[in-house]
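Worked problem 6 (solution included).
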Amino acid sequence: MLFINHLVSTAYSQLLSSYSLINCISDKFENKLNGLFYNFLQIKNANN
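Solution. The predicted structure is:
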């Protein structure tokens, strides 16, 4: 029983770490997109 608990907790921590990594990557990607969109709006406003 203890071994099963160990396996479950290990798998759970692996899942959490990969989830946080994915979140970190998607946050960076979202920030890049927001930055590009903001720059696009600035250029559009400057041309008007």
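Discussion: The chain is about 95% helix and 0% strand.
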